[in-house]
Automatic annotation (TrEMBL):
Organism of provenance: Piscibacillus halophilus
Positions annotated to bind substrate: K225
Protein name: D-alanyl-D-alanine carboxypeptidase/D-alanyl-D-alanine carboxypeptidase (Penicillin-binding protein 5/6)
Recorded coiled-coil stretches: none
Family matches, as Gene3D superfamilies: DD-peptidase/beta-lactamase superfamily
Keywords: Carboxypeptidase, Cell shape, Cell wall biogenesis/degradation, Hydrolase, Membrane, Peptidoglycan synthesis, Protease, Signal, Transmembrane, Transmembrane helix
Domain Peptidase S11 D-alanyl-D-alanine carboxypeptidase A N-terminal: 34-255
A GO molecular-function descriptor: serine-type D-Ala-D-Ala carboxypeptidase activity
């Protein structure tokens, strides 16, 4: 009977305890959110704060959300006005295409639109070959870009489109950071938000409709990309904005597109209902705190419970502290210490005095050295004369 009781208790605990999920305790209980996606994350797009995390650091296959990186590189490190000549290699790539033809000449900007809106794998290869000459070299650029410019460390790309490769991996956390970076670019934001566009190609004239359904269905959704290969399941990256907060949701390995969208909307609704982005504006003048002067150089953005009353305080040790209604510190930011002009002038004067004294000492050293050398020569000359006299005597 004891073993049966233990098994029953264990089963009950497994049912009521949450998975590896974290988030702010606010409004709707975070543990009540049930997702089909194997991994997911919700962040504040401005502060970067993680509001929900389900296996966000787990290595996964991204599929076509890879194209977010290809697009932002094309925009920032390519030239959207370039004319790209399509290769046979680009035309022959598998999967979703915009039906480019070998020898066809297409503007880079149009390729980026075909890449993001219609998930054109051929557009991805054409972009890669135009910028770096080959898919392999462009993939190296992608890996450098996300590590050096964005600062993610658990992502590795083998191609610009997201077709399956065992070494082509990312995490929900990394994709959220990548998307946060990309959405700061105005050109990227505009393209990611396009609902439909006319496509006049050499072999394909049609209207492209954004493959991300929520871009066409919800006014607050501003992008960005969906994906699918059998090994990755259904992947989805979404950005959305309301007056009080901008959100980014990443869901990975859902069992169907419907589940990916349902999971995403659950997280968006949770974020919008419970959180708000707040801003402490940069200080135009320095603050005298303790024995030093400090300044808040840039606006400080933080995320907290929606609609809270909060206060800011500057401490004597040079920190900005945000307190809630209960007087609890919920956010802290280090201020920048200001070096006073008078202090700088004093240091400069001291440096000049030291330099002058050093120069004077150096000059006197030379003078004394020369005098010493002359004295030695005179002594040698006297000794020689003295010896000559003794010899003649």
């Amino acid at each position: 009977m004891t073993k049966i009781r233990l098994l029953l208790i264990t089963a009950i605990l497994l049912l009521i305890l949450p998975l590896h999920v974290s988030g702010h305790e606010s409004g709707e209980d975070i543990e009540n959110i049930s997702l089909n996606s194997e991994a997911a994350i919700l962040i504040d797009a401005n502060s970067g704060e993680v509001l929900y995390d389900k296996y966000g650091d787990q290595s996964m296959y991204p599929a076509s959300i890879t194209k977010i990186v290809t697009a932002i590189i094309a925009i920032e490190e390519g030239n959207l006005d370039d004319t790209v000549t399509i290769s046979e290699n680009a035309r022959d790539v598998a999967g979703t295409r915009v039906y480019l033809e070998p020898g066809e000449k297409v503007k880079m900007e149009k390729l980026v639109k075909g890449l993001l809106i219609n998930s054109g794998n051929d557009a991805g290869v054409a972009i890669a070959e135009h910028i770096d000459g080959s898919v392999e070299d462009f993939s190296d650029r992608m890996n450098r870009f996300v590590k050096e410019k964005i600062g993610v460390n658990n992502t590795h790309f083998e191609n610009p489109h997201g077709l399956y490769d065992a070494d082509h991996v990312t995490t929900a956390e990394d994709m959220a950071k990548i998307t946060q970076y990309a959405m700061k670019n105005e050109e990227f934001r505009e393209i990611a938000a396009i609902e439909e566009m006319k496509w006049d190609g050499e072999s394909w004239d049609t209207t492209l409709y954004n493959h991300h359904q929520l871009v066409r269905q919800r006014d607050d959704v501003t992008g960005v990309k969906n994906g699918f290969v059998s090994q990755s399941g259904f992947t989805l990256v979404t950005s959305a904005s309301q007056d009080h907060i901008d959100l980014i949701v990443v869901t990975l390995k859902a069992d169907s597109a419907d589940f990916a969208y349902q999971d995403t909307e659950k997280l968006l609704d949770y974020g919008f209902e419970n959180f708000e982005t707040y801003t402490v504006e940069a200080t135009p003048d320095s603050l005298h705190l303790g024995n030093s002067e400090y300044i808040l150089e840039e606006d400080f953005v933080f995320t907290a419970e929606k609609g809270i009353d909060w206060n800011q305080d500057f401490t004597e040790d040079g920190k900005l502290e945000i307190e809630n209604e209960q007087g609890e510190t919920i956010e802290t930011r280090e201020l920048t210490e200001v070096v006073q002009a008078s202090t700088m002038e004093e240091h400069h004067t001291l440096d000049e005095d030291t330099e002058t004294k050093t120069h004077q000492i150096s000059v006197w050293g030379i003078v004394l050295g020369v005098l010493g050398l002359l004295l030695v020569l005179m002594m040698v000359n006297i000794i020689k004369k003295h010896r000559r006299r003794r010899f003649f005597y």
